[in-house]
Specification:
The protein has 257 residues and is an alpha+beta fold. It contains ten helices and ten strands.
C-alpha cells in the first residue's frame, strides 16, 4: 500500500528505526483469508505485469476478466483496480480455501500488509515512512515472528515492487505539480496512451514496432531491443516516454538531434 494522505498518516502507528512488530499469516491463524474480500485494491503497473506473468494472459484478457481501468481524479493518470467477485463476500478472484492462487506474484499491497508504506519524492530520492495497520479482524498480531520494516519488506520480496511502484508515484507527483502550476490534466487520448504504456506493455510493444516512435528518439540499440523483447524493460521505457511526452522532460530519454 502506498499512500501519502494525511488521514492515513494520522490513523496508523508509524514504525520508526529499530522498532519491530510481531506478525504471522498462515492457514493456522483464525482469520486466514479474511482480508482477501471486499477490497478496494489498486494495482500498480508492476502489479499487473506480475499477475499476468503468472496467469499467462495478455493484458487485454487480464483487464477484461480481473480489473477495471479508471483515471486519477483531476490528473487523468490511469489507475487500475482489481475487480472483486460478484458473490456475498466479494472475494478476490484469486482467493482459494488454501490461500492465494497467485501467491508468488501477488500484488504489492498484499505483500506489504500488515504494513502500509507512504512515499514522497525528496531532494535525496524517495522518502519512505512505514506504518503498522492494526485492523480489528486481523489475528496475525497475536503470535508470530518479530520483524523490522526492512526485514519484512525483504521477507515478502518487495524490493522490485517498491522500486517499480516508486516510479508510478513519482510520475503522479510530477503530473500533480504540472497541473498545479497551470498545466492541463490528461485528456482522454493521453489517458489512453498512458494506459497503454503502463498497463499494456505487450500491446505497447506492438505499437512501438508499427509507429516508428523509437526511431525519433536518441536510444541505444541495446535498450531498443530490450524494450521490444522484455515487458519489464518496456514498462521502464514507458515511464521515460510519458515523462518526455506529457511533461516535456526526462533525464533518461531525449529526441534525436
Amino acid at each position: 500500500m502506498t499512500d501519502t494522505s494525511q488521514e492515513f498518516l494520522d490513523r496508523h502507528q508509524e514504525l520508526g528505526p529499530g522498532q519491530s512488530f510481531c506478525f504471522a499469516c498462515h492457514p493456522g491463524v483464525p482469520c486466514f483469508n479474511a482480508c482477501c474480500s471486499a477490497l478496494d485494491l489498486m494495482l500498480t503497473p508492476y502489479d499487473a505485469l506480475r499477475l499476468r506473468r503468472t496467469t499467462g494472459q495478455s493484458s487485454r484478457e487480464f483487464l477484461h476478466l480481473f480489473a477495471t481501468l479508471l483515471a486519477m481524479p483531476d490528473l487523468g493518470l490511469p489507475l487500475l483496480h482489481m475487480r472483486m467477485l460478484d458473490d456475498a463476500r466479494r472475494k478476490c478472484p484469486f482467493q482459494r480455501e488454501a490461500g492465494c492462487a497467485v501467491y508468488q506474484d501477488r500484488p504489492s499491497a498484499c505483500r506489504t500488509y500488515p504494513l502500509g508504506r507512504a512515499t514522497q519524492p525528496g531532494a535525496e530520492g524517495t522518502q519512505e515512512r512505514v506504518f503498522v495497520l492494526r485492523e480489528p479482524h486481523c489475528r496475525g498480531f497475536e503470535a508470530g515472528k518479530d520483524f523490522g520494516a526492512q526485514a519484512w519488506m525483504h521477507d515478502q520480496g518487495l524490493e522490485p515492487y517498491n522500486a517499480a511502484n516508486d516510479r508510478y508515484m513519482a510520475l503522479a507527483a510530477d503530473l500533480r505539480r504540472f497541473v498545479a502550476g497551470g498545466g492541463a490534466a490528461l485528456g482522454p487520448k493521453q489517458t489512453g496512451m498512458a494506459g497503454l504504456a503502463l498497463y499494456q506493455p505487450d500491446e505497447f510493444q506492438i505499437f512501438l514496432r508499427r509507429s516508428g516512435l523509437m526511431d525519433r528518439l536518441d536510444l541505444a540499440e541495446e535498450r531498443r531491443q530490450a524494450v521490444l523483447e522484455d515487458e519489464e524493460a518496456c514498462l521502464d521505457f514507458g515511464y521515460d516516454w510519458l515523462g518526455l511526452s506529457l511533461l516535456g522532460h526526462t533525464e533518461a530519454l531525449r529526441p534525436k538531434g
